[in-house]
Amino acid sequence: MPTINAGKYGTLRSGSTSSWSAVRDASTATSTISNQPTSSTGIAANFTYLTGSKGSEWGLYRAYFAFDVTSYQTGYNITNLELEIDPSNLTSTNFPIAIIKSTAQGNANSNLVAGDWDSLDFSTLYAGSSSTYWPDTNNVSQISLNSNATAAFSTGYLKICIVWFYDYNNTAPISTGNYYARQNFGYVPRINFTATEIGYSNDIIGVDSSNIGSVTTVATANIGTIIGV
Question: Which range marks the domain in which residue 219 is found?
Fold first, then answer.
């Protein structure tokens, strides 16, 4: 099972005292740009909602991970894809997350900038639901990614963004407080998957399909004409 470490990974934060939409739909992060963090209790995703005599405050963190999968871009069937992270047991209890498509970090080789806050695609879900909780543990954990994520291999780059689930579906918080999905970033985020090489689907006189291209020097495209077949 191949494993690929994130080429770039990091977090952004946006905050506002005007409205939820001013945070969620902002075009730039307002603070806390962190690239390749190393904190053992770093914030992967978060929401903040505070109220008081001076008004209200909203805040969100998002984490962006980018993987170079060009080695498996063509010629392979990708299955059993999962994100592997090392979460922290300082995570808030039952913190729901969504993993969605990111368009940040170039070819998995560019650091995050403030303008990457909205470099994501809320219409493309890779994992998550209202009951998919960030692991509240100190153990290395895996989160399965769906067929939308495996389809991204055809582009050569899998780029994801981890968000609070209600950031994903645009539901403003009603419970006040600070809630966090925390992560040990000393353990570089990575993906694991099964890559099955795509070959000719039929056996020819007992020749393994992976070797079919070399049968009597006949091109695979012409294999059907061997011995008049």
Answer: 200-229
